Amino acid sequence: MDKLILRFVLFIAKTFLKKDIDFEKLKIIAETKLIMDRRRVRVTMKKQTKKEPNNQILMTLIVYSIMGLFIGALVLSLKEIIITMTIIHSYVLFMMAMTLITDFSSVLLDTTDNQIILPRPVNSKTFFVARLVHILVYLLQFTIALSVFPLIFIFIGYGILVGFASIITILLTVMFAVFITYLLYGFILRISSEEKIKDIISGFQIVMTIIFAVGFQIVPRLLNIENLKVTMPIHWYTYLLPPMWMANALQAVQQLHVDGPHLIMILLAIALPIVTFWVMIKFLAPSFAKKIAAMGNAGTQEEIVLNKEGNRQKGLSEIISPIVCVNKIEEAGFEMAWKMTARDKGFKIQFYPSLAYILVFVFIVVFKRGEDFANTWAKLSGSQSFLWCVYLPMFTISAAVSLIAFNENFAASWVYISRPLKQPGSLISGALKMLLVKFFAPIIFILFVFSFYVWGYKIIDDFVLGIFNNILVFLIISHLGKSYLPFSMQPNVNQQTGKFIRVIYQMAIIGSLVGLHYLALKIWWLVIVLIPFSAAGCYFLFRTVQNYSWQKISN
């Protein structure tokens, strides 16, 4: 599909852009970039396979088309055109912006082609237009994938006139999404150093993933859909929302009637995306290209000087590791895992969104009876719902047990066997302690403060028992699975599969402990009696992991 789109875009470019542009070189550069896109493993489509990436972008387009099928089905279920079109255009705007930010950043910020193309006889205009053509082909591919099914349903549900008008409004929405993305990148490039730009983008990717994951679970629970006859009157803030421009413009097309507010919406829907897109091409894109080129030419002299400094302060991991670890090998595993989880983009993107599901679970518990927040909050202190706060963290933290075994730079794990370690289990136990200290401890502390505020001092012993039970579950889950040294396995090996079975184990174990804890609440002293047994179980399992031999380690 990209070849056909490329021909179309090149035809448009030849029609409007002829001065100082070598179209033969432009075509070669654009085709090469598209080939690299097909081979690139995308953030959202990493698969557990030993095969080389083969047109991963096609798989992503298929997934986006399936998502569009479900969104398009709203046309048949919701009869109100304002509601339907607002949802569809919000979906296109959000998905295009998120896709550009999360998946296309590695292409937008890629400077490797500078070293190959700039020494060649390729003028700057040809190079810039080649980048622009590449981006347009990319955008059109995803626009088609996102909107093909919604457009089909629109043609069926609202007729040919609204259908053709929707094609225009969706293209205008995509143009606006591109402008927002370039504006964001330009702002980040302006306020941050060139060395930190990719870290900032990675952080933004994680935030967007968390927002998407949390919003997908929370927003449906906040909606009251008892009556589908929903109206969306025009308020002052409606004029600030691009999806509402498009929806009201399409309503005017359907009704063949234009009043004052709808006329303003039509003008905003057409004029603003075109003007902002022109501003992007005229000012933002050239400035962005210059900054990207500067990134490619920037050296790492500052980093080298910093590394040569003799005296440096200890990091937090180096301060904590002697306190929680029992030997130097365990300290090494603790510190290495701490730093790797802070630097490894793959780990952060996979694990951090799972932390957000703690908030999701809280909302599920609070709104489970369909009551409003005020009534639920008033009854909360008289319930035993604090057990959710005690055990919720382990549902997400335990997911990191399998994640810390995998890393794209797994070949560096040769250092493990280069040292005469009799009991490599200390490296694993150090990494496990790191997960508990770095992620579990802050979350359980926050939930304890919240629970103490709601239920008072009576939950202190429950939290003490719950903490030991959580650690016990954590160690049991790590013990039941295969044992890998930290960050020593390739991310796409078959061993990373089988997550469903681990989830079943986890739910069964946590469910048993929560049930036991709930029964223990009937007898006030039983909770205190169970604490030493749970603590002893944690100590025994930690010692078991520390004593792992090389025969226990999986390859």
Give structural notes.
By secondary structure, this protein is mainly alpha-helical. The protein has 2 domains: 2-45 and 53-229 and 273-297, no CATH class; 327-546, no CATH class. It has 24 helices and no strands. The protein has helices at 2-16, 23-39, 56-72, 74-77, 81-102, 105-108, 112-117, 124-158, 160-191, 197-222, 242-255, 260-297, 301-307, 316-324, 328-343, 345-366, 373-380, 386-397, 400-403, 414-417, 425-455, 460-480, 499-520, 524-546. Helix 5 (81-102) runs parallel beside helix 9 (160-191) and helix 10 packs parallel to helix 16.
Q: Using the alpha-carbon principal axes, give the shape.
A: globular
Strand content: under 5%
Q: What structural class should be given to the helix and strand makeup?
A: mainly alpha
Indicate the low-confidence ranges by residue numbers: 42-53, 223-229, 298-308, 493-498
Q: What kind of sheet is the major sheet?
A: none
Classify the oligomer. Answer: single chain
Mean pLDDT: 76
Q: Mind sketching the topology for me?
A:
Elements: H1 2-16, H2 23-39, H3 56-72, H4 74-77, H5 81-102, H6 105-108, H7 112-117, H8 124-158, H9 160-191, H10 197-222, H11 242-255, H12 260-297, H13 301-307, H14 316-324, H15 328-343, H16 345-366, H17 373-380, H18 386-397, H19 400-403, H20 414-417, H21 425-455, H22 460-480, H23 499-520, H24 524-546
Helix pairs in contact: 1-2, 1-8, 2-8, 3-8, 5-8, 5-9, 5-11, 8-9, 9-11, 9-12, 10-16, 11-12, 14-15, 15-21, 16-18, 18-21, 18-22, 18-23, 21-22, 21-24, 22-23, 22-24
